[in-house]
Amino acid sequence: MNGRIRNIVLAAGVGLLLLVGIPIGVLTWFSMRPVTPLHPILVEIEAGRSFTSVAQELEDAGVVVDGRALRLLARLKQADRGIHAGVYRFSGAHSPLEVLEVLRSGRVEMVHVTIPEGLQAHEVAVRCVAAGLGRMGRYVNLLEDMRFTESLGLQVDDLEGYLFPETYHFAPGTSEAAVLRTMVEQMQAQLETELLAAAQERGMNRHELITLASIIQMEAGNEAEMVRISAVFHNRLQRNMRLQSDPTVIYSLEDFDGNLTRAHLQKHHPYNTYSIFGLPPGPIACPGAVALHAAAFPADDDALYFVATKEGGHHFSRTLREHNNAVRRYQLGK
To answer: Phi then psi for 215, rounded to 5 degrees?
Structure first.
Protein backbone atom coordinates (compact mmCIF):
# COMPACT_ATOMS: atom_id res chain seq x y z
CA MET A 1 0.00 0.00 0.00
CA ASN A 2 2.82 2.40 0.88
CA GLY A 3 4.52 1.80 -2.45
CA ARG A 4 1.28 2.38 -4.25
CA ILE A 5 0.71 5.67 -2.45
CA ARG A 6 4.29 6.72 -3.19
CA ASN A 7 3.75 6.01 -6.88
CA ILE A 8 0.55 8.04 -6.88
CA VAL A 9 2.29 10.98 -5.23
CA LEU A 10 5.20 10.73 -7.67
CA ALA A 11 2.82 10.58 -10.60
CA ALA A 12 0.95 13.61 -9.29
CA GLY A 13 4.24 15.47 -8.90
CA VAL A 14 5.29 14.61 -12.44
CA GLY A 15 1.88 15.66 -13.69
CA LEU A 16 2.25 18.96 -11.89
CA LEU A 17 5.65 19.50 -13.44
CA LEU A 18 4.29 18.78 -16.90
CA LEU A 19 1.30 20.99 -16.20
CA VAL A 20 3.45 24.02 -15.47
CA GLY A 21 5.75 23.22 -18.32
CA ILE A 22 8.93 22.54 -16.34
CA PRO A 23 10.50 19.11 -16.99
CA ILE A 24 12.00 17.27 -14.03
CA GLY A 25 15.46 17.48 -15.48
CA VAL A 26 15.21 21.24 -15.84
CA LEU A 27 13.96 21.64 -12.28
CA THR A 28 16.76 19.44 -10.97
CA TRP A 29 19.31 21.49 -12.89
CA PHE A 30 17.73 24.70 -11.62
CA SER A 31 17.75 23.56 -7.98
CA MET A 32 21.48 22.78 -8.03
CA ARG A 33 22.70 25.71 -10.13
CA PRO A 34 24.35 28.44 -8.02
CA VAL A 35 23.68 32.10 -8.79
CA THR A 36 26.10 34.84 -7.77
CA PRO A 37 24.54 38.32 -7.36
CA LEU A 38 26.59 41.27 -8.56
CA HIS A 39 26.51 42.74 -5.04
CA PRO A 40 25.13 41.75 -1.61
CA ILE A 41 21.33 41.82 -1.66
CA LEU A 42 18.96 42.38 1.26
CA VAL A 43 15.47 40.88 0.98
CA GLU A 44 12.84 41.68 3.60
CA ILE A 45 10.10 39.13 4.23
CA GLU A 46 7.15 40.37 6.25
CA ALA A 47 5.12 38.05 8.44
CA GLY A 48 2.22 36.51 6.48
CA ARG A 49 3.68 37.35 3.07
CA SER A 50 2.94 34.81 0.32
CA PHE A 51 5.83 32.76 -1.00
CA THR A 52 4.75 33.65 -4.54
CA SER A 53 5.67 37.30 -3.98
CA VAL A 54 8.85 36.29 -2.14
CA ALA A 55 9.97 34.09 -5.04
CA GLN A 56 9.24 36.89 -7.50
CA GLU A 57 11.27 39.39 -5.48
CA LEU A 58 14.19 36.96 -5.30
CA GLU A 59 14.06 36.65 -9.09
CA ASP A 60 13.84 40.42 -9.56
CA ALA A 61 16.77 40.92 -7.20
CA GLY A 62 18.93 38.40 -9.06
CA VAL A 63 19.14 35.85 -6.25
CA VAL A 64 17.52 33.15 -8.44
CA VAL A 65 16.96 33.03 -12.17
CA ASP A 66 13.35 31.83 -12.09
CA GLY A 67 10.87 32.67 -9.35
CA ARG A 68 8.25 30.27 -10.72
CA ALA A 69 10.69 27.36 -10.58
CA LEU A 70 11.73 28.33 -7.04
CA ARG A 71 8.09 28.38 -6.01
CA LEU A 72 7.56 24.89 -7.42
CA LEU A 73 10.76 23.59 -5.83
CA ALA A 74 9.68 25.01 -2.46
CA ARG A 75 6.32 23.29 -2.79
CA LEU A 76 7.91 19.93 -3.56
CA LYS A 77 10.30 20.40 -0.62
CA GLN A 78 7.41 21.58 1.57
CA ALA A 79 9.43 24.71 2.29
CA ASP A 80 7.02 27.34 0.99
CA ARG A 81 5.27 27.61 4.35
CA GLY A 82 8.29 27.21 6.61
CA ILE A 83 10.11 30.46 5.98
CA HIS A 84 10.71 33.01 8.75
CA ALA A 85 10.00 36.71 8.61
CA GLY A 86 12.97 39.07 8.67
CA VAL A 87 15.67 40.61 6.51
CA TYR A 88 18.03 38.22 4.71
CA ARG A 89 21.38 38.98 3.12
CA PHE A 90 22.46 37.10 0.03
CA SER A 91 26.06 37.49 -1.08
CA GLY A 92 28.21 35.05 -2.98
CA ALA A 93 26.97 31.99 -4.82
CA HIS A 94 23.75 30.31 -3.65
CA SER A 95 21.84 27.52 -5.36
CA PRO A 96 18.03 27.68 -5.11
CA LEU A 97 18.15 24.80 -2.62
CA GLU A 98 20.57 26.83 -0.48
CA VAL A 99 18.33 29.90 -0.80
CA LEU A 100 15.41 27.87 0.56
CA GLU A 101 17.58 26.61 3.41
CA VAL A 102 18.52 30.18 4.34
CA LEU A 103 14.87 31.23 4.38
CA ARG A 104 13.87 28.22 6.48
CA SER A 105 16.76 28.63 8.92
CA GLY A 106 15.71 32.12 10.00
CA ARG A 107 19.27 33.47 9.71
CA VAL A 108 18.06 37.05 9.42
CA GLU A 109 20.35 40.05 8.94
CA MET A 110 20.91 41.97 12.19
CA VAL A 111 21.69 45.63 12.81
CA HIS A 112 24.60 46.17 15.19
CA VAL A 113 24.93 49.33 17.28
CA THR A 114 27.56 49.98 19.95
CA ILE A 115 26.76 52.41 22.76
CA PRO A 116 29.94 53.45 24.65
CA GLU A 117 29.90 54.58 28.27
CA GLY A 118 29.28 58.24 28.97
CA LEU A 119 26.89 59.13 26.14
CA GLN A 120 23.84 61.23 26.85
CA ALA A 121 20.45 59.82 25.89
CA HIS A 122 20.08 61.94 22.74
CA GLU A 123 23.57 60.84 21.64
CA VAL A 124 22.47 57.22 22.03
CA ALA A 125 19.51 57.99 19.77
CA VAL A 126 21.82 59.56 17.18
CA ARG A 127 23.87 56.35 17.05
CA CYS A 128 20.76 54.22 16.67
CA VAL A 129 19.47 56.34 13.80
CA ALA A 130 22.90 56.25 12.12
CA ALA A 131 22.77 52.45 12.31
CA GLY A 132 19.40 52.45 10.55
CA LEU A 133 17.19 51.93 13.58
CA GLY A 134 14.28 54.34 13.48
CA ARG A 135 13.87 58.10 13.32
CA MET A 136 15.34 60.78 15.54
CA GLY A 137 12.05 62.57 16.14
CA ARG A 138 10.45 59.42 17.44
CA TYR A 139 13.37 58.79 19.82
CA VAL A 140 13.24 62.37 21.11
CA ASN A 141 9.55 62.03 21.92
CA LEU A 142 9.96 58.67 23.65
CA LEU A 143 12.94 59.75 25.74
CA GLU A 144 10.79 62.33 27.53
CA ASP A 145 7.43 60.54 27.39
CA MET A 146 6.51 59.82 31.01
CA ARG A 147 3.84 57.34 29.96
CA PHE A 148 6.52 55.40 28.12
CA THR A 149 8.95 55.56 31.04
CA GLU A 150 6.20 54.37 33.38
CA SER A 151 5.54 51.43 31.05
CA LEU A 152 9.19 50.49 31.62
CA GLY A 153 8.68 50.45 35.38
CA LEU A 154 10.46 53.77 35.93
CA GLN A 155 9.22 56.76 37.90
CA VAL A 156 11.45 59.34 36.19
CA ASP A 157 10.92 62.33 33.92
CA ASP A 158 13.14 61.01 31.12
CA LEU A 159 15.50 58.17 30.23
CA GLU A 160 18.76 60.06 30.74
CA GLY A 161 21.23 57.62 32.30
CA TYR A 162 18.95 54.58 31.95
CA LEU A 163 20.21 53.32 28.56
CA PHE A 164 22.93 50.80 29.34
CA PRO A 165 26.15 51.07 27.28
CA GLU A 166 26.56 47.85 25.32
CA THR A 167 26.80 46.40 21.81
CA TYR A 168 23.29 45.50 20.69
CA HIS A 169 21.99 43.39 17.83
CA PHE A 170 18.55 44.25 16.49
CA ALA A 171 16.53 42.96 13.58
CA PRO A 172 16.02 45.60 10.87
CA GLY A 173 12.80 47.48 11.40
CA THR A 174 12.87 47.15 15.19
CA SER A 175 10.80 50.00 16.58
CA GLU A 176 12.32 52.89 18.52
CA ALA A 177 10.30 51.87 21.57
CA ALA A 178 11.65 48.30 21.41
CA VAL A 179 15.24 49.57 21.08
CA LEU A 180 14.92 51.82 24.13
CA ARG A 181 13.12 49.14 26.11
CA THR A 182 15.97 46.68 25.47
CA MET A 183 18.56 49.19 26.67
CA VAL A 184 16.59 50.05 29.80
CA GLU A 185 16.13 46.36 30.59
CA GLN A 186 19.89 45.90 30.27
CA MET A 187 20.43 48.73 32.75
CA GLN A 188 17.94 47.21 35.17
CA ALA A 189 19.72 43.86 34.84
CA GLN A 190 22.94 45.51 36.06
CA LEU A 191 21.30 46.71 39.25
CA GLU A 192 21.64 43.50 41.21
CA THR A 193 20.19 43.11 44.68
CA GLU A 194 23.66 43.41 46.22
CA LEU A 195 24.31 46.67 44.38
CA LEU A 196 21.00 48.24 45.40
CA ALA A 197 21.43 47.04 48.97
CA ALA A 198 24.87 48.64 49.19
CA ALA A 199 23.48 51.88 47.79
CA GLN A 200 20.61 51.82 50.29
CA GLU A 201 23.07 51.44 53.15
CA ARG A 202 24.61 54.72 52.00
CA GLY A 203 21.23 56.41 51.79
CA MET A 204 20.80 56.19 48.02
CA ASN A 205 17.90 54.81 46.03
CA ARG A 206 18.21 53.41 42.50
CA HIS A 207 17.84 56.78 40.79
CA GLU A 208 20.46 58.39 43.02
CA LEU A 209 22.83 55.48 42.45
CA ILE A 210 22.59 55.89 38.67
CA THR A 211 22.96 59.66 39.05
CA LEU A 212 26.17 59.35 41.07
CA ALA A 213 27.48 56.64 38.74
CA SER A 214 26.95 58.93 35.75
CA ILE A 215 29.03 61.68 37.39
CA ILE A 216 31.79 59.19 38.22
CA GLN A 217 31.67 57.96 34.62
CA MET A 218 32.22 61.47 33.27
CA GLU A 219 34.90 62.41 35.80
CA ALA A 220 37.13 59.33 35.62
CA GLY A 221 40.16 59.21 33.37
CA ASN A 222 40.19 55.43 33.63
CA GLU A 223 38.12 52.68 35.21
CA ALA A 224 40.71 51.86 37.89
CA GLU A 225 40.27 55.22 39.64
CA MET A 226 36.47 55.20 39.63
CA VAL A 227 36.27 53.76 43.17
CA ARG A 228 38.51 56.58 44.48
CA ILE A 229 36.45 59.25 42.72
CA SER A 230 33.37 57.61 44.20
CA ALA A 231 34.98 57.81 47.65
CA VAL A 232 35.59 61.55 47.23
CA PHE A 233 31.95 62.18 46.35
CA HIS A 234 30.64 59.97 49.17
CA ASN A 235 32.95 61.77 51.62
CA ARG A 236 31.68 65.12 50.43
CA LEU A 237 28.04 64.06 50.65
CA GLN A 238 28.57 62.86 54.23
CA ARG A 239 30.16 66.19 55.16
CA ASN A 240 27.46 68.21 53.38
CA MET A 241 30.05 69.62 50.99
CA ARG A 242 29.17 70.56 47.44
CA LEU A 243 30.32 67.96 44.90
CA GLN A 244 31.81 70.65 42.64
CA SER A 245 31.88 68.40 39.59
CA ASP A 246 32.68 70.11 36.29
CA PRO A 247 30.73 67.58 34.13
CA THR A 248 27.51 68.49 35.94
CA VAL A 249 28.09 72.15 35.10
CA ILE A 250 28.75 71.29 31.47
CA TYR A 251 25.54 69.25 31.38
CA SER A 252 23.60 72.34 32.48
CA LEU A 253 24.95 74.42 29.57
CA GLU A 254 23.01 74.50 26.32
CA ASP A 255 25.87 75.54 24.04
CA PHE A 256 29.13 74.50 25.64
CA ASP A 257 32.14 75.40 23.48
CA GLY A 258 34.69 73.42 25.46
CA ASN A 259 35.84 76.34 27.61
CA LEU A 260 34.51 76.12 31.17
CA THR A 261 34.61 79.59 32.74
CA ARG A 262 34.20 80.99 36.23
CA ALA A 263 30.89 82.49 35.10
CA HIS A 264 29.67 78.99 34.26
CA LEU A 265 30.62 77.74 37.72
CA GLN A 266 28.77 80.59 39.39
CA LYS A 267 25.59 80.24 37.34
CA HIS A 268 22.85 78.69 39.47
CA HIS A 269 21.27 75.61 37.92
CA PRO A 270 19.78 72.40 39.38
CA TYR A 271 22.62 70.46 37.72
CA ASN A 272 25.41 72.83 38.76
CA THR A 273 26.99 71.07 41.73
CA TYR A 274 29.09 74.16 42.43
CA SER A 275 25.89 75.97 43.45
CA ILE A 276 23.72 73.17 44.84
CA PHE A 277 24.28 70.74 47.68
CA GLY A 278 23.90 67.01 47.19
CA LEU A 279 23.25 65.20 43.93
CA PRO A 280 21.67 66.85 40.88
CA PRO A 281 18.07 65.86 40.00
CA GLY A 282 19.15 63.04 37.72
CA PRO A 283 21.93 61.38 35.72
CA ILE A 284 24.05 63.39 33.29
CA ALA A 285 25.03 60.47 31.04
CA CYS A 286 24.73 56.71 30.69
CA PRO A 287 27.07 54.97 33.17
CA GLY A 288 28.67 51.60 32.54
CA ALA A 289 28.89 48.60 34.84
CA VAL A 290 32.18 49.66 36.45
CA ALA A 291 30.87 53.12 37.33
CA LEU A 292 27.67 51.64 38.79
CA HIS A 293 29.67 49.28 40.96
CA ALA A 294 32.01 52.09 42.04
CA ALA A 295 29.07 54.27 43.07
CA ALA A 296 27.76 51.51 45.34
CA PHE A 297 31.16 50.32 46.59
CA PRO A 298 33.56 53.28 46.92
CA ALA A 299 37.18 52.80 47.96
CA ASP A 300 38.16 53.09 51.60
CA ASP A 301 39.72 56.50 51.08
CA ASP A 302 39.41 59.77 53.02
CA ALA A 303 40.26 62.04 50.08
CA LEU A 304 38.02 65.07 49.54
CA TYR A 305 39.53 66.53 46.37
CA PHE A 306 40.98 65.43 43.05
CA VAL A 307 42.47 67.22 40.06
CA ALA A 308 43.27 65.94 36.59
CA THR A 309 46.90 65.21 35.78
CA LYS A 310 48.58 65.37 32.39
CA GLU A 311 48.84 61.57 32.37
CA GLY A 312 45.10 61.13 31.98
CA GLY A 313 44.32 60.30 35.60
CA HIS A 314 43.77 62.32 38.77
CA HIS A 315 45.70 63.37 41.84
CA PHE A 316 43.72 62.88 45.06
CA SER A 317 44.08 65.08 48.16
CA ARG A 318 42.75 64.99 51.71
CA THR A 319 43.14 68.71 52.51
CA LEU A 320 42.39 71.90 50.63
CA ARG A 321 45.99 73.03 50.97
CA GLU A 322 47.27 69.82 49.38
CA HIS A 323 44.65 70.16 46.65
CA ASN A 324 45.62 73.76 45.86
CA ASN A 325 49.23 72.69 45.53
CA ALA A 326 48.16 69.91 43.15
CA VAL A 327 46.15 72.40 41.09
CA ARG A 328 49.18 74.68 40.76
CA ARG A 329 51.33 71.74 39.76
CA TYR A 330 49.05 69.97 37.31
CA GLN A 331 46.81 72.75 36.01
CA LEU A 332 48.95 75.88 36.21
CA GLY A 333 52.33 74.24 35.64
CA LYS A 334 53.89 75.75 38.76
So the answer is: -70, -45
